[in-house]
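Lecture notes, structural biology module. Today: joint structure prediction for complexes of two components.
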Amino acid sequence: MSTCNATFYGVGVGPGDPELITLKAARIIKSADVVAYITNTKGGSVARNIASNVLAEAHSAQTTLPIEISMSIGRADINTAYDKAASLIIASMQKGKSVAFLCEGDPLFFGSFIYLMDRISEYQNCQIIPGITSVNAASAQLATPLTILSEDMAIISSRSTDKKIADTLKAYDTVAILKAGPQLPRLAVLLQTVGRADETQYIEYATHESEKIIRDLSLITDKKGPYFSLLLITRKEREYRCD
Amino acid sequence: MSTCNATFYGVGVGPGDPELITLKAARIIKSADVVAYITNTKGGSVARNIASNVLAEAHSAQTTLPIEISMSIGRADINTAYDKAASLIIASMQKGKSVAFLCEGDPLFFGSFIYLMDRISEYQNCQIIPGITSVNAASAQLATPLTILSEDMAIISSRSTDKKIADTLKAYDTVAILKAGPQLPRLAVLLQTVGRADETQYIEYATHESEKIIRDLSLITDKKGPYFSLLLITRKEREYRCD
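The predicted structure, tokenised, for the full assembly:
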């Protein structure tokens, strides 16, 4: 495949609040020849929704490239869908068209952009515009510092093993457990076991309109939550003063 | 002290590129009655420099509140400086004036805003506008994903003990070691010892004009770098495909 001067942009649109898009992301979204994004089977797209105000100011010749990826389809089919999307993006770029792919949060932090970059960067110029992650958004909405002075932090998925989660909770001052909702009852037991339940806050859809915060873990032990949710565990005793 | 309706904003201005400020941060910086920021003894301020384009569009009645905090002064003096700054901010707010405090990166990720929030939130309304961190900026500039699928990540300071750093490098797929520059020779030895030197990239001043990237750790073993720098360690073999 030939290369050309068009660029494939991975554009982070942030955690949900449409204002938490960067000036750079807004500029590139407005000026791109093609805007691509993942949709579900009904055509819905979280990333496009977040960027809708910005997209409304795009130039009139801009075209869209919706990429339908359903989490309910098999893994082989997901790979086929990414292969097909990568081919379409490369085809646009070979015509000299820049493509901006919209990503919730940050493109390189558990982002679907990674799979497209892997397929495209060998042939075409890629550039990444970082975005605000759900972890930073959660910290802001909870008004809880992620890290102070010499504190350390670990970020793990709720799908990690019990041992991995327990070891992480014991060894790190701050822990973010992502995609916590579907695993909440199990995580609540783990947090009790390692003695950090009272250092835990829960947030779902941080900065979205449907944001929900629970600061008392005892209220959530027997309930599940959505995929877009996390637990933030921080030390109760923290050193705020420089001494 | 009395409370009122003014708000103290912790505003992340991102890692260095003036375009990596969010729309929300830009709006609040432009409209705040008072803009506060840390300066060094010569009056220089990294956060103010990053926001200078936005500040140029602020309303004409806006005032500034420079807070001189020198890292070279003693810890007691730093606390006194924060106490004094908090008093000045509270005094402005008691006159009904909103105050936006500019922070490099994210306000709650190793940010100086944390010390002010600790002193002010008891008395006054605080709101945090998250910012792009140096970790996300580094990942974007290196075009290296932070986390894919089930990968986990830890963020530690270069001032951590040798054991902590080695344990972290062994247990986590992705590791960011912050403030790496001053400790580079020591860190290079540690990375060799645990067998992850060839998975390490170095970046200083990510997204600043003076950004510098080193992808081959053997080139940096005997040199030191600046404070605003980090090492990003990611697995050589990564699972990009969903299978």
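Point to remember: The first helix of chain A runs from residue 23 to 31.
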